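[stage:ingest] chain + small molecule (2NL)
[stage:ingest] validated
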Amino acid sequence: MLRVLDDALERGLATLAAATTLAGLEEAHIQVFGRKAPLSEVQRGIGSLPAEARSDIGQRVNHARRQLQEAADGRRAMLEQASEDALLVADRVDLSLPGRRRRSGSLHPLSLAEDEIVDIFLRLGYRVAEGPEIEDEWHNFEALNIPPDHPARTMKDSIYVNIPGHPELLLRTETSSVQIRTMQSQPPPVFIIAPGRVYRRETPDATHLPVFHQVEGLVVDEGITFADLKGTLDAVARALFGQDRETKLGPAFFPFVEPGAELAVTCMRCDGAGCPVCGNGWIELLGCGMVHPVVLENCGYDPERYTGFAFGLGIDRVALLKYRIPDIRLLVDGDIRFLAQFGASR
Ligand code: 2NL
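[stage:predict] done
[stage:export] tokens:
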């Protein structure tokens, strides 16, 4: 029996020492301390020994069990430490490495063009006005002296919204309505621009979209003349396309101005010589005119005391010209290869 016990101790220590993982140690523990382990069998045999031998064998079994328990505990501590060390090595971070650079986005060409136009007017002392994109016919048409039978007011040219009980609501066709609302809410002097999205019933092609962007401008004060219009818009065109550009005004008709005009600027590609971009050297840039007295009156201004000028400029068109974009649809395609070309920094 003593030999069996010595053998159980020796093998048990070897079994525990051979465990190389915590799971392996669990197995070894069962082999050494389980019901079928040699140690347990010796213990069970004690009962059948003569009484005088029991105490001695009992003490030896307990001693062997303690030794094995200590060996198991030591082995467990060692394996736990090893697994902890392995984890730390696996999770090690090299703090001397450079950080991961996050690729920065870039402003949309429309935002770039709008910001540039707005900045020019802010430098001239104008303020930015805003208003709703869903408008009523009075602010979008009536106040602007556009009569009820005007073709622009039909479903063919405008996008009416289908809200039950509100047949007069449509998506604004120009941002003039913002300027009408501004005049209604404050007395002159008015020096504002109204940038924003406008909507028309158009079939998309290289130069048209049903949603596009406009900056309208409005000046109303005592003594404003056509010379103020001419000087202001010439300065704006040069700030936008280069100080060596020239501008010219030609006649045009809009119901909300009298007289109305169109401003053309010498082509930035051929400097006015004539090329495929411009044809005859001139590029039509914007429509403008002296605010019609009826429009002033509609907004509660006295047309005998106040005069003003107004203009409308397409932001999309400015973006196409400035950045040499060949097709307006590129502005809404969302193609990252196109958009990434406008990154200020990469
Ligand atoms: C264009 C050019 C234009 C205006 C817009 C305007 C606004 C008010 C009063 C008078 Cl509140 N006029 N805006 C004036 C002239 C031209 O737009 O090409 N439109 C289709």
